[in-house]
TrEMBL record:
GO terms for cellular component: apoplast. Disulfide bonds join 58-73. The lineage of its organism: Eukaryota, Viridiplantae, Streptophyta, Embryophyta, Tracheophyta. This is Germin-like protein. Residues 87-237 form the Cupin type-1 domain. GO terms for molecular function: manganese ion binding. Keywords: Apoplast, Disulfide bond, Manganese, Metal-binding, Secreted.
């Protein structure tokens, strides 16, 4: 009997010994789950490039003098069907330029009803061997589909890999360019090429690499670019004269 009592007391002490750590672990686990949920929530908010609309629509008012991050809303009672309409993507763009390409945008400035909706689109026309020069969209992912022609497309991953990912597309093919990455399209066929592209911002922005680096206003000092590109300053001077 005494042995049974001793065993019971020993078991009780062991249980008490582990009960406290287990309680702490349970509390820590609950806190970890809560922190994880909060972290995911704030990550989602941080990745939301544009605020969601708090009403049915916020048609841009081009005549407003109010400056906000985006465009101010037109009086909803004055909104008409034309505010949600754009015509012109059936027209071929003028590709008579040095690059042989033409971008026709449909952003909130062209289609006021896009304001706060977080989307836009473009039509891009390419003459034979025309190029949409390497550029980035700082605020949008781009997905395009080929309507006519044959295109080589590609983008470059971020440092340190700088991996070049490229593919040749035919009519009906679709390709996506991740947000912020340098990308391009080039017509590699003998005829004209056309694409329609959608972007995840009402104002995706475009930074053409050549224009930004060699055509900055005021100009980036030539010695800085010469060192960055590891070329002679005369090469930089020549490139800057092109832009």
């Amino acid at each position: 009997m005494k042995n049974l009592i001793k065993l019971a007391l020993k078991s009780s002490k062991v249980g008490l010994r582990y009960q406290f750590p287990l309680r702490i672990l349970k509390e820590m686990s609950s806190k970890f789950v809560l922190l994880s949920v909060l972290a995911l929530t704030f990550s989602y908010l941080a990745l939301a490039y544009e605020p969601s609309s708090l009403q049915d629509f916020c048609v841009a008012d081009p005549n407003s003098s109010v400056k906000v991050n985006g465009l101010t809303c037109k009086n909803p009672m004055q909104v008409q069907a034309e505010d949600f309409f754009f015509s012109g993507l059936h027209l071929r763009g003028n590709t008579s330029n040095q690059l042989g390409s033409k971008v026709t945008p449909v952003f909130a400035t062209q289609l006021p009803g896009l304001n706060t909706l977080g989307i836009s689109m473009v039509r891009i026309d390419y003459a034979p061997w025309g190029l949409n020069a390497p550029h980035t969209h700082p605020r949008a992912t781009e997905i395009l589909t080929v309507l006519e022609g044959t295109l080589q497309v590609g983008f470059v991953t971020s440092n340190p890999d700088n991996r070049f990912i490229t593919k040749v597309l035919q009519k009906g093919d679709v390709f996506v360019f991740p947000v912020g990455l340098v990308h391009f399209q080039r017509n590699v066929g003998n005829g004209y090429a056309v694409v329609i592209a959608a972007l995840s911002s009402q104002n995706p922005g475009a930074i053409t690499i050549g224009n930004a680096v060699f055509g900055a206003n005021p100009a980036i000092p030539a010695d800085i670019l010469a060192k960055a590109f590891q070329v002679d300053k005369s090469v930089v001077d020549q490139l800057q004269s092109k832009f």
